[in-house]
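Let's do one together. I've listed all components of the complex below, 367 residues spread over two lines.
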Amino acid sequence: MSNSSTVSSTSTWAGGRSPFNVSYGKLMMWIFLLSDAFTFSSLLVGYGAIRFSYAGSTTPWPDPATVFNHFPFAHGLHLPLLFVSLMTLILIISSVTMVLAVEAGQRNSKSEVSKYMFLTVLGGAAFLGCQAWEWSQFIHEGGRLDSNLFGFTDAAHEHAKHLKLFDPVHWTAADKIAGPVPFASLFFIVTGFHGFHVLSGVVINIIIWINVMRGTYERRGHYEMVEKVGLYWHFVDLVWVFVFTFYYLI
Amino acid sequence: MSNNHTQTEGNYIPETYIPHAESHGTGSLWRTFWILLGITIVDFIIYFAFGASMARNIVFIVFGIVKAILIVGIFMHLNYEAKFLRWMIVLPAVIFLSYLVCFLLIEGNYVSLEKYF
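Okay, and this is what the predicted structure of the assembly comes out as:
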């Protein structure tokens, strides 16, 4: 045993070894994700501050349950939270397939990595489709970046409080007044920023999937790249946990 | 196998060093998935079973943090990483986020006081 390796095995920072025991690329991915976490938390905290500021206002913050209460093929029924729960489920499943791809990569099993990467891409695309539908519903009902028709009159608010699952509900123009503009703009900004992360994640996953199929990583001898995109993909899932909590649950 | 895997401590080159990835099996991954799914279902049940209240909000936020710990720890593999990497990622996030949230809770109230009183 050489002298240098004896020294480095006793002290992490003595040199001659990676103190974090990860590759350069993975370390950079972690630092990027940390900075991205700050960006998203700033957005969510900003959302909280603006929502706080409407407490006691004459145009109160709309209850998400009365706004995001649609489900495909169940038009006109009061179904809050169901659709976003489905989106959460899709994202969790695609997270599992991603982590299974990483695990298969650690065993250098090309066919399995390829299969799970495909399923992950599929899950991401399904999530994006759901989000497109959600956005189109919201825009259709009057949500815009610079205006929001989801202020409800007092009578409509009272009615919304007593709605039960599967109750038919049709908001007419008479039920609505101009509501807080930040409700709509922040919805577009935060879910849009998250959706853009999902979109870029899907694109990156497709590139990695193609590389897996072409045998790039098999020749390289390791599937480190799959682990790196896996980190990014799980981060997207992590952000959705908090978007789901603060936008739809609370 | 490429040279990267066989790189020993003596000839460590930071730019190309890649530690050997060890599979931990799929058991913990599936268990984490079922826990995440279970928490989401409980979220869903609580949402419809109880009316909006501060206690319900706190439960949702605590569940969100539990989910975050599971995703970062198991899915993103941070539990198995080197000690210094774990702290380098977790500490700044915890410190900065608590700072932001504390000031939201203190100053957020002030914004509405300014506006309406």
